[in-house]
Design brief:
Low-confidence stretches: none
Oligomer: single chain
CATH class of the largest domain: Alpha Beta
Distance between the termini: 25 Å
Helix content: 25-40%
Number of domains: 2
Largest sheet: 5 strands, antiparallel
């Protein structure tokens, strides 16, 4: 039976890792609420290090746009505090219900898995919003990096390295991150049946109107939306989100209408429908639960051309730079062979498939060697989430 360790504070996390990093190392699976266990390979461990009791907001200064919290703090608690101050996590961390059938999630897990949503072309990803952290390395040593403001980040910016490491380098116990004001108004322009969706997305993304999301849903995907304007249109839908001060949003929407009208009929969604549609896009809420899901990150100019050879179950985000694809479990389609640049990630599949197919894009030999050295520096005994990544 696998033992579960449930530390109540950072000192107990340190003790747990030191216990595991003995002469006979004991591999640990690091979890918060376990909402993202379906991402990456299953971990082979002798004990579970459960951080869910390491919870609580430590500092929140809305006027400074900064928050610090223990790594096991529920994401809903973070978002509730931000809602009260009319602020947001601008990089839009994903809900995992559609992908993994799970609820919850922690702020530490958001950064450990490098969460990112439709605003990435405008505001970046989780990696760009983490200011600092406290952690325990696989050596059983406490360390920290960064601080409450960007100017405190001197020397090696370990925050960039820790985000996306999937708990394989260190156990984060505390994170400090940027927050931003919630937009006063959100609107979405819908272009129906655009003959050249790639051109439509590029025009919107490259315009001077500071759009905060550009996506394209083919007809078979659009009809699964909960937004009636999208579901019932009977055509493909290209969506362009505009956010900010009310007067600015109105002016930019008007200008975008004129820009995009030659490409197809244009409709506008107001706040509630805008929130619903972009939540569906963010959470990948369009595929059957038994489908395997791939995430292709490619140059935006190449996305629509690549998609011509992909299975029909796909849609675009990031103005074509991100392609989400769903395939039946029996479909052996080679997604990595279909792209010329960028990378492909197997976001959801059965455990046996994830065990034999590299979940993350295989790295070139030189980069893989560097990452092996980084891993051995932080976790020389290989006790933190062994097997979660491809190796």
């Amino acid at each position: 039976m696998i033992e579960t360790l449930k530390p109540q504070n950072a000192d107990q996390v340190l003790q747990a890792v030191q216990w595991a990093a003995t002469k006979t190392p004991r591999p640990l699976e690091i979890i918060g609420h376990g909402s993202k266990r379906g991402l990456g390979r299953a971990v082979s461990a002798e004990a579970i290090l459960d951080l869910s009791d390491l919870s609580g907001i430590l500092l929140y200064e809305p006027e400074e746009l900064v928050m610090s919290a223990k790594a096991g703090t529920p994401l809903v608690e973070i978002q509730a505090a931000l809602d009260d101050a009319k602020q947001i996590l601008a990089f839009e961390p994903r809900g995992e219900g559609a992908l993994y059938g799970t609820t919850g999630g922690t702020i530490g897990g958001v950064f450990a898995t490098a969460q990112v949503g439709p605003r990435r072309p405008l505001v970046g990803s989780a990696r760009d919003h983490l200011l600092g952290f406290h952690a325990v390395s696989g050596r059983g040593e406490n360390f920290k990096s960064g601080g409450r403001v960007v100017k405190n980040v001197t020397g090696f910016d370990l925050s960039k390295l820790m985000v996306g490491s999937m708990g394989t380098l260190a156990v984060m116990t505390e994170v400090t991150f940027k927050v931003l004001p919630r937009p006063e108004k959100s609107r979405t322009l819908l272009v129906f049946g655009a003959e050249d969706a790639g051109k439509c997305m590029r025009l919107a993304q490259n315009s001077t109107f500071e759009v905060s999301g550009v996506a394209h849903l083919p007809q078979n995907i659009a009809r699964r939306s909960a937004v009636s304007y999208v579901k019932d249109c009977g055509r493909s839908v290209t969506a362009v989100r505009v956010e900010g001060l009310a007067q600015s949003v109105e002016a930019r929407c008007q200008a975008l209408r004129a820009l995009l009208a030659p490409l197809g009929a244009v409709e506008e969604l107001h706040t509630t429908n805008t929130q619903t549609l972009w939540q569906e896009i963010r959470d990948v809420d369009f595929f059957a639960q038994d489908h395997h899901i791939w995430r292709l990150s490619v140059p935006p100019s190449e996305g629509p051309a690549i998609a011509e050879n992909l299975p029909k179950e796909h849609f675009f985000d990031w103005a074509g730079g991100l392609v989400w694809c769903g395939v039946e479990a029996s479909d052996p389609f080679d997604f990595r062979g279909a792209i010329h640049s960028g990378h492909a990630t197997l976001m959801r599949a059965d455990e046996d498939v994830r065990a034999r197919v590299p979940v993350f894009q295989p790295q070139p030999d030189g980069l893989a060697h560097v990452m092996d050295r980084v891993k051995s520096g932080f976790d020389p005994f290989g006790i933190l989430n062994p097997g979660r990544l491809n190796t």
